[in-house]
């Protein structure tokens, strides 16, 4: 069993998940992407992050196919933590009912484990929270959360009736993007909300960092293992690296076994110093 994070409800989730951005965009890549999702489930990934945005529903459809196949082979639904996201323009009760129904149909599921507002848009947060509550009453979603919310957005959210029931905030957080550590992450810890770290490998570009590569070679691990192990070591942080190659999936999974000594942490700190003053949240 790898590391776990705890949601505010006290439910524990695996601390490492899988992203699906840019999947389901082209029929030419569908077979390879489906095979990658199946491989991920075989390796042990149980948290799968997707969105109605990705491939205009295509990623959700692929995830649904992979889940159906894996469940036919014995994977139990209860083991899975399926995350999807609603677009801001749909984030009011009527729009969320329609969007969530489409997402459930594409995933082939009766319930999503975690439904996120993809980013803050023009709809008042109160309407979005109402929408999440209606979906929970219908048992279409178990938990809800947000994404790309900076600390002021989070403060606004918890000031809305029902807003403090938010389970997670999914933001860009990596060795190179350490802004959330200054204020957002400590604030979220007070509310016991895990931070889902997207682009944990900076879309792969982090892996070209010479110092990280050199350190990884010395330790006999891959650069991705180091980058993900550092995130996992932050506590209550759930990175969701995307990988569509089995070798990448396995390397990333191995990050759970990669322990960082105090010297390793100090070296990473030198290679990727945290910002000294507040930086606004970066968004992809
Ligand atoms: N909420 C939001 O607004 C938001 C925004 C962006 C992303 N996300 C979520 O976060 C997930 C992760 O972010 P991301 O996909 O943008 O970037 P990422 O996970 O930082 O990087 C993915 C890229 O890194 C490569 N890669 C992965 N593991 C590797 C390894 N071990 N060695 C070498 N290359 C490796 C992948 O290549 P291959 O595919 O070729 O294996 C892919 O090109 C997304 O998929 C999505 O689910 C959410």
Descriptive account of the structure:
It is built from ten helices and ten strands. By secondary structure, it is an alpha/beta fold. It has one domain: Alpha-Beta Barrel (TIM Barrel), CATH 3.20.20. The strands form two sheets. It has an eight-stranded parallel β-sheet with strand order 3-4-5-6-7-8-9-10. It has a two-stranded antiparallel ribbon with strand order 1-2. Helix 2 (58-72) packs across helix 3 (93-107). The chain is globular and about 55 Å long. The protein starts with a strand and ends in a 13-residue tail after the last helix. Residues 19-21, 49, 118, 147-148, 170, 198-204, 207, 222, 224, 240-245, 248, 251-252, 284 line the site of NADP nicotinamide-adenine-dinucleotide phosphate.
